[in-house]
Write a structure and sequence with these properties.
With about 120 residues, the chain is mainly alpha-helical. It is about 65% helix and about 0% strand. It is built from seven helices and no strands. Helix 2 packs across helix 7 and helix 5 packs across helix 7. The relative contact order is 0.18.
Length: about 120
């Protein structure tokens, strides 16, 4: 199998896995907000893009991806920044990323394309 086809298969599997699990995240988020309107402030400009990328991941993604309800971070890192950005812009994760600026999504995609450090 060609590398491009393999990446597309991995991305397709990632999208399907997210589709199956994001419902739990949405329900959990809506329950925590109850009847209040959640206002999401844009992330402030930080000097270190890696720090902002990690903060965005922790605020927007970790609840599902670190809890086993969505593909783990190491699996996401197997994708290019462009593939991750496509998932955030037009893929299944678009509903989660819709309140993020293009700058935030780009920083997050670049950050997530790197293997996690621990």
């Amino acid at each position: 199998m060609r590398a491009g086809a393999s990446r597309r298969s991995l991305l397709a599997a990632l999208v399907i896995a997210c589709a199956l699990t994001v419902g739990a995240c949405v329900v959990a988020a809506s329950e925590s907000v109850a009847n209040d309107v959640a206002v999401v402030e844009p992330a402030p400009i930080e000097a270190d893009p890696a720090a902002l990328g990690e903060r965005l991941y922790q605020e927007r993604c970790a609840t599902c991806h670190d809890a086993g309800r969505a593909p783990p971070r190491a699996q996401i890192a197997a994708n290019s920044p462009q593939e991750i950005l496509e998932a955030l812009d037009t893929g299944f994760m678009a509903s989660v990323a819709m309140f993020m600026s293009e700058r935030e999504k780009t920083i997050l995609a670049n950050h997530l394309s790197q293997p996690p450090t621990r």
